[in-house]
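Hey, can you fold this?
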Amino acid sequence: MQENLAQHRALEQAAGFLKTAKSVLFITGAGISAESGLPTYRGLGGMYNNRLTEDGIPIETALAGVTLQRSPEVTWKYLVKLEERCRGAAFNPAHRVIANIERRWPRVWVLTQNIDGFHRDAGSKNVIEIHGNIHRVLCASCGFRQDVRDFSGIAIPPLCRRCGHKMRPDVVLFGEMLPPAAVTTLIAQMEQGFDLYFSIGTTSVFPYIRRPLEDAKSRGRFTVEINPEETEASSLVDVRISSGAVNALMRIWDLVTEA
């Protein structure tokens, strides 16, 4: 009973912060999509936790930028498997709550590590996909981007219909730099700052994911973490909700919108 009461108080605090906020940043990781059926593994599908791939190499090697350059067939083989996992799932009520908040609050942004595209599918428009989107391919030669919802129906590797060059997934592979446009947008939004910061379903191990919370702390802004487990961000936040994303965000939404 004591734990349930503490959890209820944390939810009420988070809802209270949200009611008065004019600007909100949601930082999301693999945990928010886990409830859509995607296993958590740095947002990459959970296919090979602590195991080698069938090619006898770590998944980090198979999905590395250098492997894509040297042996594109190897990287694409596992990208197809990854896209298939995402194809069989869809956004959940947690993604939908965030999209609803964006529609009703003056300024709301999402910084996501996930490459599944669920935030946009749910209706969010201000989304920084810092690791890219598995449902897009990119021509490294001319910059042409194309949406591809099903990798099983395309040539591997696909060829650009504009210039004929080999295309690559529009995601950040291991060992690669973050996309400049996404970084620029993140910096611009961080310079403005937010009234409220949510960290949801992420371990916050990457500095660029943890830094917004550190910035919020220095600015004296409110912060909330939603995660069943303690993380790198737990010591930084004002309110910690030990729960899955769907349950917590739906309860917060109910508290905010109740008459």
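Oh, and this one too while you're at it.
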Amino acid sequence: MNPSRRTPATFHSLSRLPLLLAGVASVVGLGLSAPAGAADASAMALTGTDYKADRDMGEVLKALAGLNGKPIETLEPAEARKQPTPTDAVMAVLKSKGKDTDPLKLVKGVTSVDREVPGAAGNIPARVYTPSGKGPFPVVLYTHGGGWVIADKDVYDGGARGLSKTANAIVVSIDYRRSPEAKFPAAWDDTLAAYRWVAANAASMNGIPSKLALAGESAGGNLAISTAIAAKKANLQAPLAVVAVYPVAQTGDLSTPSYVDSATAKPLNKAMIGWFVDKLFAKPADKADPRVDLVHADLAGLPPVTVINAQIDPLRSDGDLITDALKKAGVTVEHKVYTGVTHEFFGMAAVVDKAEEAQEYAGKQLKKAFDR
């Protein structure tokens, strides 16, 4: 979930943001405790929690604060979509350092083209990323975050572009319909329709039809896992892997440990998630639908799932919940939590070291599945 908007001019500068960094991420299991001495005023002001952001993550948070966005949870959706995003903050950091913001230079060898693909109720915008080389390549369907209400493929260009590089795969990133204009389950229906199209048309993109995967961030992480379940039920070509980055695993319980310790975290806080949920559903009972409540969904028979979380994030505990549920269902799952970084860090590899490591890890997980 990520505050978002983009105009054509900023799209490119954004997309230019996230990739290529070098740095070793410290990764820990969930159930994290606040680091000793992190309760200093500057650390808390940056993150909204007692957790201390790494220096490079802190630079992005400072830049985001300097863009003077309004609190998403106080706005109407149309205005919320116009607010500065973490991706805008990455662009600002790059510019302040005199660095190029061209995505083609940040992620060398990955090209992209915009097109439309079939959704459930008509065509939807998509961006197809292709790595260098002759191919054919595996194909990954990628779904962006934004709480199903805001953001788009431009805001999440960094994560999708980076994954194309690290997984050496074609990545198809889609703009599914958003709420409240198209309430639940429109986004889920669009994602399944797009996956159906990818499975039928992989070869036409120089892809390998038998080597498909699903990936997504935040709300898109939920869509990735849910679509793997839906593909199984529809007897479609099965994905070989799922990568879910800080996924929403449920929306019924906003009192988990991370909703408590990161209630006022930045750039995503508990109030924003409540706002997203309010806009998403036509009726409260929809919260229990297994397409949203993945913890209680039929997860048996899914391919290997990789769950990636940030320490400074109200969704951190959702990673715990879905990991435990997948294990109980007999699904192979790996889970990493990166300390010192926040929600939305994954696409920030141009300026945040641990984002590069997380992208490399996700790419290796996908390659492992494709090579089986």
